[in-house]
Write a structure and sequence with these properties.
Helix content: over 70%
Mean pLDDT: 88
Largest sheet: none
Strand content: under 5%
Shape: globular
Number of strands: 0
Radius of gyration: 24 Å
Structural class: mainly alpha
Length: 231
């Protein structure tokens, strides 16, 4: 269980045992911040504790050294605009190091890539992300929603929010179907209706409401159909 143990150590060290004041000090002083080295020391110690095996001392040391290299690189190269991107790059690299250690100790294998059931589920999930969004966009291309009028109602939305909401809802519906919890699909439809269509009703724009309703039904329909086909 090396992977699980090192992930637990990572979650404790990177999030729970790292106050915001340490993060701010590291971003200000960068490699001169003493909290960077204290943070790395804590990670190394936690890895030792969770592994609890002197035979894996090298794994704890490797986690500590790699953590310093990754964190130092992030502090040096990140800017205000790229801060969010570097956060995810940082976390991904830490997880890859832990996965690499687990693979080296033969805890992991790539046999799951030969599992046809896993590959089918992965294919369905991937289709419901960007490919499904493109299909829906093309199917709706013959209709153009009415231009929004503001008045006393706020009609602005976040950039690309609709696309990501659609992807998330399709993946959730797909997951509910895969685990045989169809009631979850009903919950998703109800939640979408309450939050989305109440705003549209206030906006009093019938064409826009119909446009969003068609898009929503297409999105849910694709997720349900994909789930049924995969099963």
């Amino acid at each position: 269980m090396i992977f699980t143990q090192l992930i637990l150590a990572h979650l404790l060290g990177d999030f729970i045992l790292q106050p915001n004041s340490w993060v701010a000090d590291k971003e200000h002083l960068k490699l001169r911040s003493p909290y960077l080295y204290l943070h790395v020391l804590i990670h190394t110690a936690l890895s030792f504790v969770f592994l609890w095996n002197t035979g894996f001392w090298w794994a704890a040391v490797l986690v500590g050294v790699s953590h310093w290299v990754i964190d130092a690189s992030k502090l040096v190269f990140q800017t205000v605009k790229s801060k969010k991107r570097w956060f995810f790059i940082d976390q991904l690299l830490h997880i890859l190091v832990i996965a690499g250690i687990s693979f080296y100790t033969k805890e992991f294998s790539f046999d799951f890539l030969k599992d046809q059931e896993f590959l089918k589920i992965l294919m369905g999930a991937l289709f419901l992300t960007t490919p499904a969004s493109i299909f829906i966009k093309i199917l709706l291309s013959s209709w153009t929603p009415a231009p929004e009028t503001s008045g006393s109602i706020q009609t602005e939305s976040l950039a690309s929010a609709g696309k990501y909401i659609g992807i998330l809802e399709r993946l959730l519906v797909f997951t509910f179907i895969m685990v045989n919890h169809w009631e979850g699909v009903g919950f998703m439809v109800a939640a979408k209706s309450v939050f989305r269509f109440s705003d549209l009703a206030q906006a009093k724009q019938r064409k826009l409401t119909e446009y969003v309703l068609i898009g929503t039904l297409l999105s849910f329909g694709m997720a349900v159909l994909t789930g049924i086909l995969i099963k």
